[in-house]
Amino acid sequence: MKCIPSFVKYMILGVMVGLFVILSIFYTHSTLQLGVAMFFAILQSRITCPKCGNSLLKDKNGWYIFTVRTTCRHCGQDTMLCEVEPDEVTQKRLQ
Q1: Which H/E stretch holds residue 34?
Q2: Which residues contact 77 (CB under 8 A, 6 or more apart)?
Q3: Helix, strand, coil abundance in the chain, percent, nearest 5
Q4: Following CA atoms 58, 7, 71, 3 in sequence, which dihedral angle do they give, to the nearest 10 degrees?
Q5: Which residues pair with 48 in a beta bridge?
Q6: pTM for this model (two decimals)
Q7: First to last CA, the chain
Q8: Could you report the per-residue pLDDT of 25-60, keeping only the tens digit for each?
Q9: How many CB atoms lie within 10 A of CB 40?
Q10: Strand, helix or coil at 48?
């Protein structure tokens, strides 16, 4: 089975949340679509780093941050990769 990187999942779910919010506010005025948007937002907040298992949307203090980064804020893992990279590779890239 083909792996979908964590960063790609984050971006796809972000687009879906934005789409449903815009559709429900400006076009259909449906609270059901806001519920669907909240469901996708919850899924988006639970995407984790493949190396350390921490959420991609949380900083080191546990606050949610919605800025886009391709590396994990906790361990530096490249989230565009499905497999866990060795610590030496991560440290070399971060320097």
Answers
A1: helix 31-45
A2: 49, 50, 51, 52, 71, 84, 85, 90
A3: 50, 5, 45
A4: 120
A5: 55
A6: 0.77
A7: 34
A8: 888 888 888 888 999 989 888 888 888 888 888 887
A9: 20
A10: strand
Question: Within a 10 A sphere around the Cβ of 10, how many other Cβ atoms?
Answer: 21
Is-contact 30 72, C-beta < 8 A? no
Residue positions counted in the chain: 95
Provide long-range contacts, Cβ within 8 A and 24+ apart, for 46-53: 47/6, 47/9, 47/10, 47/13, 48/6, 49/6, 49/74, 49/75, 49/77, 49/79, 50/6, 50/77, 50/79, 50/81, 50/82, 50/83, 50/84, 51/75, 51/77, 51/84, 51/85, 51/90, 52/77
